[in-house]
């Protein structure tokens, strides 16, 4: 059962929130709607749930247009960041109230016990829901949504109110359960770690428009816009603005004192006045500066440890600060002159309007 969002637009007053958004969630998979705060991702989820109505476009579920259907007619399960349960009731009562009436009469007691065991809540069945920890509360919210067997699951920032350890534990748990139940699921998040763990299609929203649709790895390796390059980066990427030039020695990307030879059919026209070259900090390392035209030079300011590696902040003569990864030789000392080699590293070239081209730099 596939969910299709087709040319959806939504305004609140005069403010456009979503503009001609189209995407799809494949049957049985987890599709992530990823974007910064205010990009329209929660509004998109509410439109799919029927809690808001679009100004334009259609929502199609399993071949049926559900755009005008009420929330109760869409057969969706919802999980929100603040949780969804009755705190004054027991876990057992919360699960029982979430069941369809027919299932409740048929085998309600055994279904509740089975669901509680699947979600590690069997020892809390008679405890008031308000006494649960944050992670247990989110597990209860998911169990309540799944116990009535909805065809579509919608999750809005379900991990954002938890500490980092609980986030990691609950991500794996929730995604495993969704796959176990075979549910078509849509996850809304601003955290790229959620998108990575979901391991499905990622719909990247930028100011209410679709910026890119791909897997997490596809967006990370081949971002189509500067926004995409920055949003999926673990550290701020190094951006160099310049232009393409043809000469007797071939084609080069040129920016101030940087001149980098490139290969491949990269067109350069008068309409394209500039391009942006992006490097990830984890891809760069100091070199001996043999190719001085393909180096970034600066002064080491300080280093820090993050994500299993040490990084150094480099200050260029212009005052711009860049970050690069320290390698086996250790980090340079404060005040030391450093040259970062660019040759042999695959950067991302982004034209302002035309998407991206991956450059293959000569070794």
Automatic annotation (TrEMBL):
Identification of the protein by name: Iron(III) transport system ATP-binding protein
Domain of life: Bacteria
Organism lineage: Bacteria, Pseudomonadati, Pseudomonadota, Gammaproteobacteria, Candidatus Kentrum
Record-level Gene Ontology MF annotations: ATP binding; ATP hydrolysis activity
Keyword Nucleotidyltransferase tagged: no
Ranges where the ABC transporter domain occurs: 3-232
Keywords for the protein's UniProt record, in alphabetical order: ATP-binding, Cell membrane, Membrane, Nucleotide-binding, Translocase, Transport
Organism: Candidatus Kentrum sp. SD
UniProt entry tagged with the keyword Plastid: no
Gene Ontology CC annotations of this record: ATP-binding cassette (ABC) transporter complex, substrate-binding subunit-containing
């Amino acid at each position: 059962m596939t969910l299709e969002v087709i040319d959806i637009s939504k305004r609140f007053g005069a403010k456009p929130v979503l503009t001609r958004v189209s995407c799809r969630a494949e049957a049985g998979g987890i599709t992530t709607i990823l974007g910064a705060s205010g990009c329209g991702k929660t509004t998109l989820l509410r439109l799919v749930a029927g809690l808001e109505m679009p100004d334009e476009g259609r929502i199609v579920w399993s071949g049926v247009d559900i755009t005008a259907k009420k929330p109760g007619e869409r057969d969706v399960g919802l999980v929100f960041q603040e949780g969804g349960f009755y705190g004054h009731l027991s876990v057992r009562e919360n699960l029982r109230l979430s069941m369809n009436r027919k299932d409740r009469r048929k085998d309600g007691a055994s279904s509740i016990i089975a669901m509680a065991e699947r979600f590690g809540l069997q020892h809390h069945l008679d405890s008031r829901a308000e006494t649960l920890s944050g992670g247990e509360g989110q597990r209860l919210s998911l169990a309540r949504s799944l116990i009535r067997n909805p065809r579509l699951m919608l999750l809005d920032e379900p991990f954002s109110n938890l500490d980092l350890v609980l986030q990691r534990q609950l991500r794996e748990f929730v995604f495993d359960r969704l796959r176990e139940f075979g549910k078509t699921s849509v996850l809304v998040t601003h955290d790229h770690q959620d998108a990575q763990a979901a391991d499905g299609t990622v719909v990247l929203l930028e100011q209410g428009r679709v910026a890119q649709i791909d897997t997490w790895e596809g967006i990370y390796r081949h971002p189509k816009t500067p926004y995409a390059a920055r949003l999926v980066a673990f550290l701020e990427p190094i951006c160099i603005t310049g232009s393409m030039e043809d000469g007797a020695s071939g084609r080069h990307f040129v920016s101030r004192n940087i001149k980098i030879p490139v290969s491949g059919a990269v067109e350069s026209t008068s309409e394209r006045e500039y391009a942006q070259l992006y490097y990830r900090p984890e891809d760069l390392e100091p070199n001996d500066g043999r190719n001085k035209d393909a180096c970034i030079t600066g002064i080491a300011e300080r280093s820090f440890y993050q994500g299993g590696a040490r990084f150094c902040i480099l200050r260029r003569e212009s005052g711009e600060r860049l970050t690069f990864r320290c390698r086996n030789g250790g980090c340079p000392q404060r005040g030391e002159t450093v040259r970062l080699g660019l040759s042999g590293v695959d950067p991302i070239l982004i034209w302002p309007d035309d998407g991206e081209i991956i450059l293959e730099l000569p070794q």
